[in-house]
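Appendix B. Raw example, untouched.
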Amino acid sequence: MAFEPINTQEEFDAAIKARLERERAKFSDYDELKESAEKAAKRVEELERAEEARKGDEKRRAALDKVAKETGVPAELISGDDEESMAASAKAIAEFAKAPAAPQMGEAGKFAGEENGKGGAAGSMKEVVDQLFG
């Protein structure tokens, strides 16, 4: 087979037609692959955000457990987003828990034990003092 030079555009197109079709076939699924790659990239972003949130939750939980252990306040009662605010919350709860209870009221305007004329004014004052100071 001897070499024959190409003299016209039609001869050139015919000579490379098969080669062009093979090359175009390589990229025929480009749009599908591009869409799949975009979906995969979005999924990776979602997973990365979820991982960051999980790490943040673990860090918050560790700080919460640490503050609860240090203060003796149950973790369920402590609020805050960081260790400093959690410690302040636990301190306030602990101080509140140590505060004496307010005197218990019986009927409207009367202290407990004062109903039906029992106790009188002196008795009710003694009860108030006893309830406040133990």
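End of appendix B.
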